[in-house]
Amino acid sequence: MLLKKKREFENQKGKENILVQSSSNKKGEFQVKQKLLLPKVLLYKLFLFLTPKEINKVIRTLNHQYLQLISQQFWNVRFQLRFQYYNRYNPLQFDDLYQKFKFLQERRSKGKLYQVCNRLTGQQFVLRELDTIKANANHNDGVQTSVLREISYLKSLKSHLNIASIVQVKITNHIVSILYEYYPLNLRDQLKQTELSIEQIKSLFLQICQGVEYLHQNHILHRNLKPDNIFINNKVVKISDFGMSRLETYPIIPYTPEDPKERERSNREVKRLWYRAPEMLFRKQYYSCEIDSWSLGCILAELALRSPLFGGKTEIEYLFEVFQFLGSPDENDWNSISSDVKIKFPQWRKYSLQINELKKNEIIDIVQNRKQIYEKLITLNKILGNDGIDLLQKLLCIKPETRLDIIEIVQHPFLNAFSQNTQMYYIEPKFKEYLEFQTEINQTMRSTLIDWLIDVCIHFELMDETLHLSIIYIDLVLSTMKINRKDLQLIGVTSLKLADVYNERSKEYFKQENCNAYAYITADEYNEKQIIDMEQQILSILDYNLTYRTPIQFLKIINSKLKVSNDSQMLSYFFCDFFIMGYEQLIIERQLYAICCLLLALNIKNEKINSSQQFQFTEKDVIEAFDRFYNVWQFIKLQPQINSLEACMQRHKHLNPRDIQLNIPPSEFITQFLG
């Protein structure tokens, strides 16, 4: 039997060789396309005639030869041409297209990192493979917060010269594969290899600041700036590793405090500690872009010293070095960096970092008590000069509010550059009028689903932004994928779970069971596996981008800037929740939607405000949006199935919402507001 298979295989192989040789005619080309064997099929047939020992030897030999091939110059010619020819007839999938050839590192919560190359082009990348089960204490709860945020932030940003980018994302079962650009040299390695001139220091630091400026203008806090996460490619800086990044909220909410690490820190965690702002280590929960300014100060000093400015294996050791260098905190400093924790440190006096400004007795005091500090000061002053030391001193301020912001850093005389003034980039969700092809759902079902989601948000104590994000995800999915009626609630609950994990305070320090909680809230109509499977479908439809500006975010920003009264604010938030349940509002831009909700509230409360803001909308745009609002109002009021809207009314019960009447503002009122 085995001999018969061998003869059949040899006969087939001979025929294929003939077909390949006669591929110049169209018929031959078609036959080659049909008969060409896949590598896996070919290997399978070969292995039929080999012993396990021979198979092992063949694999080792092929692997060794392949590693030699990719390190040689003709990889870009012969080897690529063969794969390109094969790809014409059998397009390579993700796993076959990228060949792993070097293992880099592994971390339980971050997965495995490999250096890979594209078989068609020879270009090298970094592949990260994360096991969501292993990362969450052997329980699959879907994609974790840090991964969702990193992918989403980089997907939402336009390409920037100094920001590393994600090439491709793929999720298969419980394995998340992320393909990054590959850069062989990071800033720490660069500093070990070469001593930088002052011009090189300025060039590198300016590029780092320009990358951070772009992030801050788009309200993204990096929160993990350090030389290991800054790469250099042909003298161009690339900022990477957004696993700890966070979208800045407005108004600022309590963020997840620093992990206390009740164990010995790893070498990687120790290095991250050296660039943390002091208030982070005192578990301050309200902070903003000033934490990145501190990290930039540490990096600037390291560019000159070629070694970290501050060290220490523990938080207390690190804080000792910081206060020894800058001076111990006074009462005002403590109020800024910690609200309830005050540790008694040795009383080190504060001095100017400018050597030429120090008095003789101050120099003697530093030399006697802090000799290493004085040596660092001499080196920093010698390399950075007066302007560089002035910038460093304004970045390494213990009081967060006194640190320079990123625009002031770029415009400082040391860098003497112009701010990019990059316009904030908002991705407007592109909805379709999906009820034209969704045959099994209607407006009433959509409104009922959203009212139920409001009830879930009340139960789980979720933020307003989380609710509105989930509704955007639902409408984007319905605009793309035709669904059955029974899947509507599954899409709704999964979208809310995604928005929760992405937008709420991260709880990655502990085992997560969000899928279990969201399955339970549906009265076990769906199980955890169904929610995880739907999550992967939704992420694929959204192209893994979860970052959208919601109407409630715009509304809170406008209310704060215009100093709207509290009564009008509360009423505008009710309108924002109420009209989001209407199908006709989908084509209204999210910022215009927020403006209309505010105008309705101001008109009812008879509060006149001249915005003096340069809104991009005209009076005609506002009136057209109000027409759609009126249609939504009439639809909901006339539908007995959804007229109750119990959850929405309960959420805003302090306003007596059932007594509120829709009163469209007159054109004069709109004109005055728009200025």
UniProtKB/TrEMBL annotation:
<dbReference type="GO" id="GO:0005634">
    <property type="term" value="C:nucleus"/>
</dbReference>
<keyword id="KW-0547">Nucleotide-binding</keyword>
<dbReference type="InterPro" id="IPR006671">
    <property type="entry name" value="Cyclin_N"/>
</dbReference>
<comment type="subunit">
    <text>May form a complex composed of at least the catalytic subunit CRK2 and a cyclin.</text>
</comment>
<dbReference type="InterPro" id="IPR000719">
    <property type="entry name" value="Prot_kinase_dom"/>
</dbReference>
<protein>
    <recommendedName>
        <fullName>Cyclin-dependent kinase 2 homolog</fullName>
    </recommendedName>
</protein>
<keyword id="KW-0067">ATP-binding</keyword>
<keyword id="KW-0418">Kinase</keyword>
<dbReference type="Pfam" id="PF00069">
    <property type="entry name" value="Pkinase"/>
</dbReference>
<dbReference type="InterPro" id="IPR011009">
    <property type="entry name" value="Kinase-like_dom_sf"/>
</dbReference>
<dbReference type="InterPro" id="IPR036915">
    <property type="entry name" value="Cyclin-like_sf"/>
</dbReference>
<dbReference type="GO" id="GO:0005524">
    <property type="term" value="F:ATP binding"/>
</dbReference>
<keyword id="KW-0723">Serine/threonine-protein kinase</keyword>
<dbReference type="Pfam" id="PF00134">
    <property type="entry name" value="Cyclin_N"/>
</dbReference>
<dbReference type="InterPro" id="IPR013763">
    <property type="entry name" value="Cyclin-like_dom"/>
</dbReference>
<keyword id="KW-0808">Transferase</keyword>
<feature type="domain" description="Protein kinase">
    <location>
        <begin position="83"/>
        <end position="415"/>
    </location>
</feature>
<dbReference type="GO" id="GO:0004674">
    <property type="term" value="F:protein serine/threonine kinase activity"/>
</dbReference>
<dbReference type="InterPro" id="IPR050108">
    <property type="entry name" value="CDK"/>
</dbReference>
